Amino acid sequence: MKILVIGSSNTDMVAKTTHLPVPGETVLGGDFLMAPGGKGANQAVAAARLGGDITFIAKLGNDIFGRQAIKQYQQEGIETKYIVTDATNPSGIALITVDAKGENCIVVASGANAHLQPQDLPDQQIKEAAMILTQLEIPLETVEHVAKKAAEYKVPLILNPAPAQPLPAGLLKNTYILTPNQKEAGMLTGIAVTDNESAIAAAKALAAKGVPIVIITMGKSGALLLQNGQTESIPAPEVTAIDTTAAGDVFCGSLAVALSEKVAIKDAVKFANAAAALSVTKMGAQTSAPTRTDLEKFAAF
Question: What is the pLDDT of residue 245?
């Protein structure tokens, strides 16, 4: 089943340090890694490595970063012919610092990502998709357009509301599955999500806005699933985290693949939890996304 991923593409520049710097502080780093990233691209690659049939739509600059990104996506088996080249703006860049505990802070220069417009999206590809996955590193009006078209064509839409921002009521009503993390759920609802009880409250608040399925990812604690008014906490495998960059993206890409294979939602969340857990044991964004073989060795499904 065709999964259409619409979103951002960046080049990640990652420096590892003992601790994250505070304002005005210079920290001498250790390892440096430059790799493809961007939430949309991360999710597309994660899904492709797990066997998903992926078409990726993004906007890249006419530069070395953009050309290299397209080449890498093609090597992953991703359909790239609908990626748009921006003749004016550069490809997106993300500067990422990772501390000794695997926590990170990220600054993104969006570049061409900020100029992906509704007219850049082929309507027929939206109509023919079995599932659509998108995020918020592209213009909100473009995400709204995708959601409206998905609803019109009865194509299920997974929205990863990251980076968090206020979302129009119509967008939420046109979303089939919403996948915020704890901080994003808190920003969307005004409820500080710190434990299972507060996560349930936030999930119910989001469901009340018209979202049929809410999945709040909770790091090492796994994920909270709400469907049909019922909630369930689904644990994640225990691992030692090295780098949490893109764990949420791996979760979303994995979730889309499992659902495209007609896996029940609870089992799809278990699958995604395992993929995300395995990803944090490696450095980088797309570089940490597991293959299907690696995931099946890690956890039985």
Answer: 83
